Amino acid sequence: MPEAYIIDAVRTPVGRKKGTLAQVHPADLGAHPIKALVARTGIDPARVDDVVWGCCDTIGPQAGDIGRTAWLAAGMPEEVPGVTIDRQCGSSQQAVHFAAQGVMSGTQDLVVAGGSQAMNAIPISAAMFAGEPYGFTSPFLGSRGWDARYGDEEVNQIRSAEMIAAKWGISREAMEAFALASHQRAQAAWDAGWFADEVAPLEGLDHDETIRSGTTLEGLAALKPVREGGVITAGVASQNCDAAAAMLIAGERAVRELGLKPRARIHHISVRAANPVWMLTGPIPATQYALHKAGMSVADIDLFECNEAFASVPMAWMQELGIPHEKVNVQGGAIALGHPIGATGVRLMTTLLGALERTGGRYGLQTMCEGGGQANVTIIERL
Fold first, then answer.
1. Taking phi first (over 0 means left), then psi (-120 to 50 degrees means alpha), and beta for anything else, what does residue 349 get?
2. pLDDT tens digits, one per residue of 1-39
3. Can you give the residue ranges of the Thiolase C-terminal domain (predicted)?
4. Active site residues
5. Spatial contact of 76 and 69, defined as CB atoms under 8 Å apart
6. Which pTM value belongs to this model?
7. Which of 1, 140, 146, 183 has a 20 to 30 A CA-CA distance from 278?
8. Is 60 left (phi over 0), alpha (psi -120 to 50) or beta?
9. Any idea which fold 4-122+240-258 has?
10. Distance (Å, whole) CA 141 – CA 60
């Protein structure tokens, strides 16, 4: 089977809630890393076969196939098409998978995979709330098939995070220590210049403005739980934010004909799912499945990225699979860097690639929890 290679990857800085990027139009937000990617790689953009883009809540200015409109807003050739993917939080990671499958099949040579999310302009779950005038307040409400299978179980990510903390015996104090480490690692990475090469400044912003360098355990302990009597607070959850990221995936023929120098090879791609009511446990069986399919073990992986939707998610995943925290999210995670839903998959992979190059590691594994109980897993090999 032909190989799929990562030629380069770039992202915007992450803008915090009501921050620097809050007024950037979603099409322009997505266009920015596309322009930077084309400039960095020196490719003729007309050679791109497709743009595969992740985005959720595609209403308002994010509607109308934002993958296509971002490409056009970037001033790129009209003959190149684009498509938008919604696998919830894993949307742009799935975009990478589809791009890789395209070049592995031999039907495509060069694909831009990426994602964007303007969470200031379009709040999380806005697409669900948009159904309210028509009597739909939930994607499940009124489905006889869903009700027959899952009854009236509440489907809510906060509830899921609480359930995970209870099942795996993860205390609030342990989650707050994990959250503090996320901010400390992210700030240390910026201070050391580890993010500099992956970020294309936008609107005068040249760093991730979501990091709270003054975070303390005392401050985290003072926050109120989201649910009465619960252990999940805003301090141990990912942040709403604005960002976009793009990656160039190439097949062997494009690498040869265009003289491209790959940074990594796509070693494995897969996606699995678990109970949608639990919602956030998918990375556990998905990682087990991926390692089995790839003939690998946890010990074979040098670095991991597991999205910090809530601290309890990667903590349960690490506990269940025996993965040391020292190898996970080494430059911080979504608690500090934000979770721009549609962009997070490629944002994580961009950071993972840079971290492998910095440390000399060979294999990196990335996974994240996704709506519907799903989880993508990608294993990349640094070249």
1. alpha
2. 789 999 999 999 999 999 999 999 999 999 999 999 999
3. 260-382
4. 89, 339, 369
5. no
6. 0.96
7. 183
8. left
9. Peroxisomal Thiolase; Chain A, domain 1 (3.40.47)
10. 23
